[in-house]
Design goal:
alpha+beta; Bifunctional nuclease domain; Pdz3 Domain; six-stranded antiparallel β-sheet; 8 helices; 23% helix; globular
Length: 282
C-alpha cells in the first residue's frame, strides 16, 4: 500500500488562507487615511551605493523618490515592465496566479514606513465574498513586483516622500524602461526605428499605453517627440519632463504615429490601470 503523501502549502499561501482580515503581523506604521498614491516609474541602480532602486513618481508634488529594493526584485520588475514572455512562471507570477485561483485580487501595495534603513510594506488583498480586505505584511520590493503584474495601485506614507533620500540614478544598461502617465517608454534604437518606419527625430518609443493615454490615441509604436516642449532623448528624460509639469496643469505630449505628429494633454495624477493595446515586443 502506497504511503499517504502529505502536502505542504507555501508559507505565504498558508498565511493568506489562514489569516483573518483583522489579524496583522504588526501595526501599520501610519494612518491609512494619510496614504498617498504614486506611480512606479522605473528601476535602476544608485551609483553611490550600487544598490538597486525603484523610482516612485508622486504626481501632486512632482517628486520622484527612490525605494531600495533587492536585485531579484529589480529583475522581476524589469521583466514585467518589458512584458518579457517566460516559459515558466517566476515567483511573483506564481503569486498572482495563486490569488486568481483563490478568487482573490491584489488591490493595493502600501509602503507605510522606513525603520533603520528598511522599508515596510503591506499587501491589501480582496477575497471574493469577504467584506474587509486582508492585510499581509510584505517587503515593498516584492509588493512592487506584484503590483506591476496586476491592476494594484501603490500608496505610500507621506514620510516616505519627505525622507529626501539622496540617490544618483543609473539606468540598467540598454534595458532602461520608464512609465509615467500610463505610458511606458524605451529607447528608440535604430533597429526599432527601421522596423516601425519611424522618423529620425529624437524621442523615445512607446512600448505600452493604458488608461487615458491609450484612449487619447497613444499606442505602442508611437514616438514621443516632446513633453511640455522638452524633447526626451532617453526614458529617464521622459520621466523628468513629466515630473516638472506645473501643479494643476496637464502634461502636453507631442508624439508621432502613422505618419503624422499629434498633440494631447494628459492629467498628471496616477492613472487607473485598464485594458490597453497589445504591448510592443522590444
Amino acid at each position: 500500500m502506497m504511503p499517504r503523501l502529505r502536502l505542504f502549502l507555501p508559507a505565504s499561501l498558508a498565511l493568506l488562507l489562514a489569516m483573518p482580515g483583522e489579524a496583522l503581523a504588526r501595526e501599520m506604521a501610519t494612518d491609512p487615511d494619510r496614504l498617498l498614491p504614486v506611480e512606479l516609474a522605473t528601476v535602476g541602480v544608485d551609483a553611490d551605493s550600487n544598490a538597486p532602486i525603484a523610482l516612485l513618481r508622486h504626481p501632486a508634488s512632482g517628486e520622484v523618490v527612490p525605494i531600495v529594493i533587492g536585485t531579484d526584485q529589480a529583475r522581476a520588475i524589469l521583466l514585467a515592465m518589458h512584458e518579457v514572455p517566460l516559459s515558466r512562471p517566476q515567483t511573483h507570477d506564481l503569486m498572482i496566479d495563486l490569488l486568481e485561483q483563490l478568487d482573490a485580487r491584489l488591490e493595493r501595495v502600501i509602503v507605510d514606513g522606513l525603520e533603520n534603513g528598511a522599508y515596510l510594506g503591506w499587501l491589501e488583498v480582496r477575497v471574493d465574498g469577504e467584506d474587509a480586505p486582508r492585510m499581509i505584511d510584505t517587503r515593498p520590493s516584492d509588493g512592487l513586483a506584484l503590483a506591476v503584474r496586476s491592476d494594484a495601485t501603490i500608496h505610500v506614507a507621506p514620510e516616505i516622500l519627505e525622507a529626501q533620500v539622496p540617490f544618483d540614478y543609473t539606468p540598467p544598461g540598454d534595458d532602461e524602461v520608464v512609465t509615467a502617465l500610463g505610458i511606458t517608454v524605451v529607447a528608440a534604437r535604430e533597429e526599432l526605428r527601421e522596423a516601425l518606419q519611424l522618423p529620425d527625430d529624437p524621442g523615445v518609443l512607446v512600448s505600452r499605453a493604458v488608461g487615458r493615454a491609450a484612449r487619447a490615441g497613444v499606442t505602442h509604436g508611437a514616438l514621443i517627440l516632446e513633453v511640455n516642449g522638452r524633447t526626451p532623448t532617453t526614458p529617464i528624460d521622459f520621466l523628468e519632463a513629466v515630473s516638472t509639469t506645473p501643479e494643476d496643469e496637464g502634461a502636453e505630449i507631442r508624439y508621432w504615429l502613422d505618419g503624422k505628429a499629434r498633440t494631447i494633454t494628459l492629467p498628471t495624477d496616477v492613472p487607473a490601470i485598464e485594458e490597453s493595446d497589445d504591448a510592443l515586443s522590444v
